[in-house]
Amino acid sequence: MSRIRTKMAAPALSRRSVLAVLSLMLNAAVLCNGGTTSSFVRKVEKAVDMPLDSDVFLEPPGYNAPQQVHITQGDLVGKAVIVSWVTMDEPGPDTVHYWKENSKHKKKAKATVTTYKYYTYASGYIHHCTIKHLEFNTKYYYEVGAGSLARTFWFTTPPEVGPDVPYTFGLIGDLGQSYDSNKTLTHYELNPAKGDAVLFLGDLSYADNYPNHDNVRWDTWGRFVERSVAYQPWIWTTGNHEIDFAPEIGETKPFKPFTHRYRVPYKASNSTAPFWYSIKRASAYIIVLSSYSAYGKYTPQFKWLEEEFPKVNRSETPWLIVLLHSPWYNSYNYHYMEGETMRVMFEPWFVKYKVDAVFAGHVHAYERSERVSNIAYNIVNGICSPVSDQSAPVYITIGDGGNLEGLATNMTEPQPKYSAFREASFGHATLAIKNRTHAYYSWHRNQDGYAVKADSLWFFNRFWHPVDDSTTAHS
Ligand SMILES: *[C@@H]1O[C@H](CO)[C@@H](O)[C@H](O)[C@H]1NC(C)=O
Ligand SMILES: *[C@@H]1O[C@H](CO)[C@@H](O)[C@H](O)[C@H]1NC(C)=O
Ligand SMILES: *[C@@H]1O[C@H](CO)[C@@H](O)[C@H](O)[C@H]1NC(C)=O
Ligand SMILES: *[C@@H]1O[C@H](CO)[C@@H](O)[C@H](O)[C@H]1NC(C)=O
Ligand SMILES: *[C@@H]1O[C@H](CO)[C@@H](O)[C@H](O)[C@H]1NC(C)=O
Ligand SMILES: [Fe+2]
């Protein structure tokens, strides 16, 4: 064929090319029943980290003042909060004072203090304190440090776990500390949807992109995000940038800086490691998984998840949400199929237990799937294409927080059928649960005003209202 073509006269060739293009277009019309690849074209530019002297990295004034204050849920149901902070010069006071809004009665809780070394870096004094027996749906103030250096923050506990409790989650992944990261966080803070807590999808500081994983960039990241995470819990998922595996300096156990700095309530869900755990919050049951811990059959994570799914009571928590870092359904040419092995192990459970949504990061772009599953395959039957499945979750990749590695722009073509919407822009999302049947989801790209929704839809709960909520057919 090709030899014949090369011998053809020019006019014949061009007519032939036109025909070829036409037939490709016809093919595309027949084959391309995938979703939407956004026509929004972002100016491609490198994401640049904010310099060390940026306003967002400023240390609080005063000798040994508490910094990098952050909170997360501290138990299974939201009646406890873990408060963490760092002091740079000496351990300093280990007490958190806290009180209900409009109450003069201050209570106290004690923190533990830890430090660690990594390459030539020596950490400050990292404090973790679990405040327990809080009341639901209540605003609390808390104070760390003492005397003139005391710093006061506040948080509101979630409503009591129950089926029709409205609650709004923010969704941020792969944030890093570039100018774009700052824009993502600012847009989340200003979003009129007003997130009550952040589901963070892994890859926090990107310190490991610096020489010797310069852990000073963990400190700057802690100061950067304090303006949000000191006031509302961020629920942590671990990503590959938390692994920090460095056998050349004897660091053969992964996750050292992360586990020293960030605590999660994994024991409350009978997990044996902080990388996989679950919490209930308002009307949601949130399962956090680790793409970077063993998940093969018989491993601790596998056995934990096997016992975890049957515990979910949809009459108590209608919304079943899973967080993990490496996406299972991803049609970008980045990290392609990295999530596949975990999908093979766990996807049948996700369909059986009707998970509503799976949020992932890792790929620095945005993508939303239709409800699909791919669980019919076994070695001999060869059935290996995703199929529409109303018992399956929607898979959302939102690794577009803005880190210095930049955007993933190269997509597989044509867009696969299961992919409902994809766009290579930085941004964040919110999931506003209204009641047991309805939740409103929206993704916001950074180039627009923070109130503009670039992708949004109603999720219908898979247990209480399993009505088709796909969007491709209507778009
Ligand atoms: C980060 O964003 C905040 C809030 O918009 C702004 O005040 C600050 O100047 C920004 N800092 C940098 C370095 O972009
Ligand atoms: C954890 O295990 C203990 C002991 O088996 C059990 O009593 C408890 O209910 C379990 N907690 C959860 C959240 O599964
Ligand atoms: C599930 O939750 C509902 C509502 O809280 C409760 O009445 C019911 O007993 C629970 N079911 C089980 C099996 O625990
Ligand atoms: C996009 O990714 C594909 C597959 O990895 C590769 O062959 C192609 O060269 C990439 N295109 C660009 C423009 O980088
Ligand atoms: C649940 O919320 C949706 C969206 O706000 C609303 O249309 C629906 O009527 C609500 N259902 C109930 C039972 O209140
Ligand atoms: Fe990642």
Ordered list of secondary-structure elements with their pairings:
Layout (H helix, E strand, L loop, with lengths): L1 H6 L2 H22 L4 E2 L29 E7 L7 E7 L7 E6 L6 E4 L1 E3 L2 E2 L2 E2 L2 E7 L7 E6 L6 E6 L10 E6 L6 H12 L6 E4 L15 H14 L4 E3 L19 H6 L15 E5 L2 E5 L11 H9 L10 E5 L16 H13 L4 E4 L5 E4 L2 E2 L13 E2 L5 E5 L20 E5 L3 E7 L4 E8 L9 E6 L15
Parallel strand pairs: 1-23, 12-13, 13-14, 16-17, 17-18, 18-22
Antiparallel strand pairs: 2-3, 3-9, 4-5, 4-10, 6-9, 7-8, 10-11, 12-24, 15-16, 19-22, 19-23, 20-21, 24-25, 25-26
Structure characterization notes:
The chain is an alpha+beta fold. The protein contains seven helices and 26 strands. The two termini are 40 Å apart. The relative contact order is 0.15. Bound molecules: 2-acetamido-2-deoxy-beta-D-glucopyranose (NAG) (5 copies) and fe (ii) ion (FE2). This is Purple acid phosphatase. Belongs to the metallophosphoesterase superfamily. Purple acid phosphatase family. Its cofactor is Cu(2+); Fe cation; Zn(2+); Mn(2+). Residues 66-157 form the Purple acid phosphatase N-terminal domain.
